[in-house]
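Q: Here's a chain of 1194 amino acids. Please give me its 3D structure as tokens.
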Amino acid sequence: MYLKRLEIQGFKSFADKIEMQYENGITGVVGPNGSGKSNISDSIRWVLGEQSPKSLRGSKMEDVIFAGTASRRPVGMAEVSITLDNASRKMPIDYGEITITRRVYRSGESEYYLNKSACRLKDIRELLMDTGIGKEGYSIIGQGKIDEILSSKAEDRRLIFEEAAGIIKYKTRRDEAEKKLTSTKDNLLRVADILHELENQLEPLRRQSVKAKKYQELKGKLLTLEVNLFIREIDKIEVELNNINNQLKKVTESLEEGRLEKQRHAEGIENIKQQLNQWDIEYSQLQGAFHQTENEMKQKEGDLQLFKEKLSNNDENVKRLKDEIRQAEENHQEVKFQLEEKLILLEEICQQLNELQRGLTIKLEDYEAKAIKNSEKEREMEDSKSYIIDTLNRISDKKSELNSLKTLLQTMEDRLLQVEGENDTNIQKLRENQDEIVILDDEHRQLSEEMKLILHQEETHKEELKTLDDEITEGYKGLEALKNKMNHLQSRKNVLEEMEKEHEGFNKSVKNILQACKENPSLGRGVHGVVADLIKVPKGYETAIEIALGPAIQNIVCDKDEEAKRLILHMKNKNLGRITILPINTIQSRSITSDELSIIDQLSNVKIAFDIVDIDPKFKKIFSSLLSRVLVVPNIEAGVEAAKKLNYRFKIVTLDGDVLNIGGSLTGGSSIKNTSGILGRKRELEDLLEDINLAANSYNKKNQEVHTLKDNREFISENLSGLNLRRQDARIKEATLINQIQQAKKEKDSLEGVNKQLLAEIIQLKKVKEESYSKLQLREKEIQELEVKISNTKDSINSIHDLLQLEKTKLEELNSEITGEKVKVASIEGKKQSILQEIEYLQQTIQKNEGTILNKQMEVVDTNQRFIDLTHQLKSSEQQLEMLTQRASILDQQLNEKKDKKNTILEAEAKIHSEITSFEEDLAKLQEDFHKLELKRTKLDMQQQSYYNRLWEEYELTYQSAVEMKIEIEDISQSNKDIKNYKDEIKALGSVNIDSIEEYDRVKERFEFLRKQQEDLLQAQDSLNEIIKDMEKTMEKQFTQQFQIIKENFNTVFTKLFGGGRADLVLEEEGNVLKSGVEIIAQPPGKKLQNLSLLSGGERALTAISLLFAILLVKPSPFCILDEIEAALDDSNVHRFAAFLKELSETTQFIIVTHRKGTMEIADVLYGVTMEEEGVSKLVSVKLMDQEEDEMAS
């Protein structure tokens, strides 16, 4: 895989569209400062998904769009496309080429395309993940990135190693899995709270549902009887309607017979009309035929006259044609005579022309022979000149070699003096080196003692830190527990608040009317809400009061009965169900007699429910009617005692929710819990707020304790850091000393080796000097001999030149004679052509005259034939005229017969009209009978429709639906009694919540669904934990393996680029591979081991480049953009950098933005960026490989 193409339009300074084609190898981008060359690397970074305008050297993303110049308007859009070769299918997409496009508009709108199909940034990032091209990858490196690698924190620096190790994809998926895990835990908490609430609602709803089903059963029986009574009346009307319909059928049949008879007579009239129409047509046809025959007779008379005139004209044409033929034959003979004269003249001119051409040919052959001889002489002279030039070149080469030998002799003498001096200096350095080794060994012994003391102090501080870390960890665990508790309480509070807001637990019809009042203020005017929202209950009494209120807890409270009517009408119109409304102006308070109050006062732990609750005074009557005759007792034993003394006239409720009903029945069990119900929910909300505040106070206190421990730890950690720095400095000093000792010993070996080399070089220089002097004398002799040969050749050239001048004069004279002969030949040739043209014209004229004569003769034959034809036509026309006269007489007779027939048809028409009048009188009487029956039927239909309407209005049933409920009613009186009984039973049931059936099923279904969802979430939680664990194992293994390889490569590349020294990569926390930062250790040759910040700019750049190359050796990026990363290097380091880059280009494609000559020299292709127009970048390209091949070929 590699980068094939880059297209830029409207991006930064590239106003016009440019296209850069790339091949494998190294592509260089050069240009002066400010020309926009770095915008190319910015464009690639941008199209790959860079979201930070600052990284693109801007303040906002719109800054990348070309902003215009003094002579150019700004553009509205920037677009960059890169095309990657994916023939190897390294990227997981089934395309041989992948084109990624990014587009941004001034409006801020941004678009991404993958092979011209719109996509998301996420899709592109996932596609490029772990290829080295990603956002955190190492495919685009600029000067800022180089400094960032060395200056960033150790933990931030690891991102580039993660990309190289190929674990970014795993890391991204792990983060997504952890987010899902957190979300799953939150969902589990929420589901558990909702399940708890739903479980508390199920039992009350079940009881309401049973009551509602009983109501529906009675209502169904009542409906069946009432509907069947309606059906009985409807069927009775239906019988009467059938009788009337039978009568209407008979009258309709009589009407139909009368209409048919009338229609038959009408058809008779129509038939007569058709006969009259047919008569008119036939009469008109006969009349037209008669007039046509008269016109044809007139036409034939005209034709006879025309034929007579044509016969007369035909005789005159024959005479004229015979005269024209005679004149044409005379002209033909004259032209033949002229043609014979021209042919004789042509023959004479051709003989003269042949004689001239033979003389001209002889002179041309003589001219050509002399010209060839002159060319040979000229070629001989040119060869001599070439010999002189070649000889002069040889002399020049010999002189250049002579000068080189002289320079070499001088260089040898200078070098000999230099080497002898260097040898003396080297002997002095060797003595100094031996003294330095002794001093360094002493310093190393002293430093070892100092390091032992520092290590002892560090161990003491580490033990103190371990103790503090344990205490801090326990503190954080306590904080986490408190935080989880707070989150749990807050989540529970949110669930309850949401349930309060949505009126969870209320009937659907109640929810509907509350929502309608909220949306429609006029509808909700005077409405205060439900009973549950208007009451405050002391802690511990929630269950008792909610049971005491029963379904009334969901009743709606309003000011007046008019508002109650308005709400009920709205419920009916919108089909929203049934509700109970408590108007303040109509509800009456319920009182307790003084005797009853006296008994209650004597009972211990018995309270009136109305006295317990806290309410607004304006709702006093409402709650008095609901709770004044309800008592609250601590347990069922106390309740039984109170019921007996009060003669079972009060409803008594225990704190646990057991009920002693009026009359003595008991209701109770274990399904009701203290926290259940609507009022329990309100109480729980208040308790939750208090618990959240207590937990927050505990959290803050524990947090303060942890901060104190952290401050202590920081103090000890700072002391330990100081010791660590001292130890590191000591280690650096020790490493430096060891390195200096090693370097000193290496230097000693090197100096001794240099001494041997210098002595050998002195001997070699003296030998070369003697050889060069001998060659110098030989070259001087060769130059003298070549100069003599040049002089002789010049004399020969002068002799040949004089002879050539004489021959050229003779050739010019001969050429003049040839020209004169050519003029004569041309003149006679012209005469010949003129005669040939005249001959051709005469021949054409003869052919034309012969054709004219033949045509005239043919015309004579045609005219004679025409005379015969006209004679025959004349006779035929006379016969046709006679036949037309006879036909006109016959047509006149037929017209008279048609007039007689018309009178007979008119008499038949008058008779039929009389019969139709009689039928119409009978039909009018039948129609009157029909209308009377129709009126009676309409009256019965209206009665029947009235029953249909009542069926719909009272029961919402159509007749067809009602018939499905039909039963046999034998006794109407008994049915009416049954209807009354059913109504009494329904009334006895009291308030019924019909919606509870549906609500119970809905809550139960939701409860089962959430319980299943809870199981699924628990499985998902376990699965996510396992996935995260597996991914972290894979990431740790892969990162460790790749990091070790990069580490080894880093030291190798560093040594090669620096020409010595050493480098290392160290994980800060080896026990925590996935979070540990990465420290870079670098020691350039001849320097002490020191902090990276103390390195020079060039050393820092070369260290970062070494790291980049080490990564590329492990995991080559498909392509790599380097933006002036070698700017801080000196020339020798640039050459080493370029050489190593050339090696890497075998596996990685490089695009380098540079201004260094050493880097340019290794590029296969160079692109130049210029700014001929101010503010607008322009691109030019040169293929260096092609140029080198051309130069070698030349």
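Q: Can you summarize the key feature?
A: The domain at 1-135+1156-1194 is CATH 3.40.50.300 (Rossmann fold).
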